[in-house]
Amino acid sequence: RSLLSRALVDLDVCLCLFFFLLKVRPIEPAAVLWFTDGLVIASLENYSPASRIGVLVRAGSRYETFDSLGVTHLLRLASGLTTKGASAFRICHGIEAVGGCLSVSTTRETMVYTVDCLRDHIDTVMEYLINVTTAPEFRPWEVSELTPRLKVDIAIAQQSPQIGVIENLHAAAYKNTLSNSLYCPDYMVGKITPDKMHTFVQNNFTSGRMALVGLGVDHAVLKQVGEQFLNIRSGTGTIGSKALFRGGELRSQTGGSLVHAAVVAESAAASSAEATAFGVLQHVLGAGPHIKRGTNSTSRLSQAISKATAQPFDASAFNATYSDTGLFGVYTISQADSARDVVMVAVSQVGAIAQGNLTVADLNRAKQRKSSCLGRSQWLAVEIWLTRLSWMKSETGVHLLMFMASNA
Ligand SMILES: *[C@@H]1O[C@H](CO)[C@@H](O)[C@H](O)[C@H]1NC(C)=O
Ligand SMILES: *[C@@H]1O[C@H](CO)[C@@H](O)[C@H](O)[C@H]1NC(C)=O
Ligand SMILES: *[C@@H]1O[C@H](CO)[C@@H](O)[C@H](O)[C@H]1NC(C)=O
Ligand SMILES: *[C@@H]1O[C@H](CO)[C@@H](O)[C@H](O)[C@H]1NC(C)=O
Ligand SMILES: *[C@@H]1O[C@H](CO)[C@@H](O)[C@H](O)[C@H]1NC(C)=O
């Protein structure tokens, strides 16, 4: 008996120690991933008091059809509208009451619904997130009330030369899909009916096209939520068309004295090995933000261009990756009369590297810069990691990729 009780005490001590370690030591974030009937569920437990949960849907503007152009822009604004379970008012106040925040962002490929909240309120906020993404009602009067906001969004975008260049760049580069703008075309404003929105959501928001990602969330909680998604919107949806690169040139006159120019070629799909190489190349050339305020840039592009012109300019590598294609090139901003030189020199630098003019030291520095950029934001790392994994679904390399991602 004494043996047993001693064993129990030992066990107790062991367990205490175990839980103590569990509570105190878990600095390593734990990443967990499931694939259930096509739905990807991924979570990264970082033991932070704040949680973030995202629903990623492969329903960006590239999936808009000819007669529904702009629908994703409208959906981006429609996240607070009445759903089958709650009024617009209740959603807004319900999330605010617990200090949460719901936001929607779209890219050409993905729509991302994100909620941020304190860990204690996950359940409340998750219910809203599920209702917003799975059971919107799109009441006609609420949808038509979005028109002024749509117009403001478009007007703001039109003020930004950077946005204009990127939109035109995609329109010139692709024949279909990715040529669709992130912004509703002017002629579609006020013409996107609730029916079109319903059709788009019905066809594109299926579990096979969704991923649920949690940061600072208990894995079990997220898995439970995932099951609700499966109940509500199971199905794989159709496979979208492949993006066709065509190339071309598009010029848009603004009357300003600055020239924004992007010169790109088709690069590689995000899942391919070359995409990583293009990522490094971007850092070899200089992957600055598009607007800088007089920094003394040391990038290879800037160094080369400053030898060719004394006028102010900004130049960085442009790299966009999509699931089936990509764009790579240079983006320059310069005075109108030096634009020719700036663009020519920038493009010639890409050519020089292609010819092999690249030292090992430069290459290694670029790799380091790339890693430090990736590591900067944990959330970003999760997104990248997820995007990588979602193509790899059917393959067995999942664990290796997970490992790579948490070290990114
Ligand atoms: C979500 O929807 C269900 C049924 O549609 C409803 O019963 C529930 O109250 C809704 N919850 C929230 C938080 O909107
Ligand atoms: C997305 O929705 C549209 C309807 O608006 C549909 O035509 C299209 O096929 C859907 N895309 C996919 C990939 O299911
Ligand atoms: C290419 O650039 C985009 C930003 O434009 C970035 O998100 C992506 O990770 C880059 N691709 C690679 C392979 O680094
Ligand atoms: C930029 O760096 C160069 C050499 O490193 C230096 O000569 C120049 O004065 C710097 N310019 C500014 C604005 O700091
Ligand atoms: C290689 O690149 C460096 C720096 O950009 C340049 O100074 C040099 O002339 C280039 N060499 C050749 C052979 O292109």
Automatic annotation (TrEMBL):
<dbReference type="Pfam" id="PF00675">
    <property type="entry name" value="Peptidase_M16"/>
</dbReference>
<feature type="signal peptide">
    <location>
        <begin position="1"/>
        <end position="26"/>
    </location>
</feature>
<feature type="domain" description="Peptidase M16 C-terminal">
    <location>
        <begin position="191"/>
        <end position="369"/>
    </location>
</feature>
<dbReference type="GO" id="GO:0005739">
    <property type="term" value="C:mitochondrion"/>
</dbReference>
<feature type="domain" description="Peptidase M16 N-terminal">
    <location>
        <begin position="41"/>
        <end position="186"/>
    </location>
</feature>
<dbReference type="GO" id="GO:0046872">
    <property type="term" value="F:metal ion binding"/>
</dbReference>
<keyword id="KW-0732">Signal</keyword>
<protein>
    <recommendedName>
        <fullName>Ubiquinol-cytochrome c reductase core protein 2b</fullName>
    </recommendedName>
</protein>
<dbReference type="InterPro" id="IPR011249">
    <property type="entry name" value="Metalloenz_LuxS/M16"/>
</dbReference>
<dbReference type="Pfam" id="PF05193">
    <property type="entry name" value="Peptidase_M16_C"/>
</dbReference>
<dbReference type="InterPro" id="IPR007863">
    <property type="entry name" value="Peptidase_M16_C"/>
</dbReference>
<dbReference type="InterPro" id="IPR011765">
    <property type="entry name" value="Pept_M16_N"/>
</dbReference>
<dbReference type="InterPro" id="IPR050361">
    <property type="entry name" value="MPP/UQCRC_Complex"/>
</dbReference>
